[in-house]
Amino acid sequence: MKYILISNDDGIDSIGLFALKKALEGLGNLCIIAPETNRSGISKALQMFSLKIKKTKLKDNTDAYAITGTPADAYFIFRYKIFNQEPDLVVSGINLGCNVGIGDILTSGTIGLALEAGLHGVPAIAVSLCVSQEKKNSLTLDDFNIAIKITRQIAERILVRGMPNNVHLISINIPEKPQGIQITRPANYVYGDIYVDNGDGTYSASQLRTDIYNNYHKRNSDINAVFNKKFISITPIRLEIKSPRDELINLLRDIEL
Questions:
Q1: Do 87 and 78 meet the contact criterion of CB atoms below 8 Å apart?
Q2: Is there a contact between 120 and 93 (Cβ–Cβ < 8 Å)?
Q3: For the purposes of burial, counting CB atoms within 10 Å of the CB of 153, is it exposed (0-12), middle (13-18) or buried (19 or more)?
Q4: Alpha helix positions (H), the chain
């Protein structure tokens, strides 16, 4: 029996998490561990202080665990506190909103869990439904039909064949009414000023507008696929931090103690 960890960053009550459970039913022993509240934008941060684990149920009476931690914490809770073994697959989502470009990849809590799993050598998938902020509160399970179908197919293949060489995680972004599927690369795109003045001396990070991506046309990028071609973007990601030691030696050659 394969063990599959499911989580997200939108919280245990998100319809996207319920849709993800539907996508993976029958593929293995599903363990749902998700933040009890929205933890969007938390990346792969870990809860450094008190963390509580509470048994709960989804709306169809499926057993689950709600945690006061982050999506990345879900990996450690599964591995060391509940099953005491590595999951065979980690699937995070289905995120309510896209996660495209390097900025999103390094910020998203949904992808943050996949990053954590990938660092431990566990196959991981992050799935995001590219819907506008205005539509998030009115989504029904039918809106996830294509995401469910695509996620299941990819999960099935990974469980049977394993991850491709040098791929640690896969990020899937699904636009509304997709016209096709494309294997992509992360766009080299980062945020500008996302903070809004609340008028009381404080600032809040605004919900990122999707129209900021409309003029990004770099070939084979996730942004171009989703927002210009209306294609499902499937992005393989390799976790590697390069260290150009020789270049630093040249810069610091004359530094003395």
A1: yes
A2: no
A3: exposed
A4: 15-24, 71-76, 101-105, 109-119, 145-161, 222-223, 245-251
Structure tokens at 186: 């992360």
**CA distance between the termini of the chain:** 58
- pLDDT tens digits for 84-128? 999 999 999 999 999 999 999 999 999 999 999 999 999 999 999
Q: In which residue are the tokens 């179908």 written?
A: 149
Q: How far apart are CA 23 and CA 25, in angstroms?
A: 6
DSSP helix/strand/coil, 129: strand
> Which tokens in the block code for residue 125?
């998938």
Residue position matching structure tokens 């903070």: 195
Under 8 Å between Cβ of 63 and 57: yes
pLDDT digits (tens, 9 = 90+) for 203-225: 987 655 555 666 677 889 999 99
Residue type, 31: C
Inter-axis angle of helices 15-24 and 145-161, nearest 10? 50
One DSSP character per residue, 49-73 reads: S---EEEEE-TT--EEEEESS-HHH
Residue 209 has a pLDDT of 55
Q: In the numeric block, which tokens belong to residue 224?
A: 């171009």
Measured distance CA(147)–CA(157) in Å, rounded: 16
For residues 120 and 117, give the distance between their C-alpha atoms in angstroms, rounded to a whole number.
Answer: 5
Q: Which CATH superfamily is domain 3-251 in?
A: Survival protein SurE-like phosphatase/nucleotidase (3.40.1210.10)
**Whether the model pTM is above 0.85:** yes
